[in-house]
Automatic annotation (TrEMBL):
Pfam family for this entry, one: CBM53
Taxonomic placement: Eukaryota, Viridiplantae, Chlorophyta, Pyramimonadophyceae, Pyramimonadales
GO MF: starch binding
Family annotation (InterPro entries): CBM25
Protein name: Carbohydrate binding module family 25 domain-containing protein
Source domain of life: Eukaryota
All copies of domain Carbohydrate binding module family, residue ranges: 152-192
């Protein structure tokens, strides 16, 4: 069993939901002094992305009442959100470290393993990755087109498709014709399907003609998506 990391949403003034509801009732009754009323309004505001929200939705006449409801909803959503395990948090941090490495050093370390590799070597749901493809070993290595791209999709192509241009990587003194791109794996995916292309009708797939398939760590079961 792994420990979980959980953070409650921050409120200005350190107020709790039940206190904010009491403040809202007092403001409506007019039983608070002007000084206390101003302080109470500050505590009833919601911090969103580091800024204090001052927006007012259409049809709501009492900003304080709306902000109180927003706090209640924010904390309710946080309670329902699945906590991040310590193992996944460590994997996300490791992915950031790998992403910052120089492409040439990654090719030197992992390039001999096959036609392509991804770093981190195992996909992590919710993290960014780099894909490296050795076109010299690809099925369109003799194509006159120098364009190289990766075509990918998630959940057996049912959760969207993307096409990413790959960039050539200079590898002096090394064999191969290496290309790379960056991509991100969403949270709620159970697999990633992909293939490579020269931008025309030439593709690189598995020898049996099927797309390549990668399975992320910390991914939900197919039945859950």
């Amino acid at each position: 069993m792994h420990s979980a990391v959980y953070k409650k949403p921050a409120l200005l003034g350190g107020g709790r939901v039940k206190n904010v509801e009491r403040v809202s009732r007092s403001l409506k009754k007019g039983s608070m002094s002007p000084h206390c009323r101003g302080s109470a309004k500050l505590q009833a505001q919601v911090r969103v992305g580091g800024l204090v929200s001052s927006a007012k939705p259409t049809g709501v006449r009492t900003p304080v009442h709306w902000r109180t409801k927003a706090i209640v909803q924010t904390m309710a959503d946080a309670e329902l959100a699945e906590p991040i395990s310590a193992e996944k948090e460590a994997a996300l941090k490791a992915a950031e470290v790998e992403l910052a490495r120089e492409p040439l050093s990654l090719i030197k370390e992992f390039g001999a393993a096959g036609k392509f590799f991804v770093t981190p070597l195992t996909l992590v749901a919710g993290a960014k990755h780099k894909m490296f493809f050795n076109r010299a070993w690809g099925q369109f290595c003799t194509s006159n087109r120098r364009e190289t791209c990766m075509i990918g999709g998630f959940n057996n192509w049912t959760a969207g498709e993307f096409r990413t241009q790959m960039h050539h990587v200079e590898t002096p003194g090394m064999e191969g014709d290496w290309w790379m791109c960056e991509f991100e794996v969403p949270e709620n995916v159970y697999n990633m399907r992909l293939l490579f292309s020269d931008g025309a009708e030439n593709f690189d797939k598995q020898d049996d003609g099927q797309d390549y398939t990668l399975v992320p760590d910390f991914a939900p079961m197919k039945e859950e998506c």
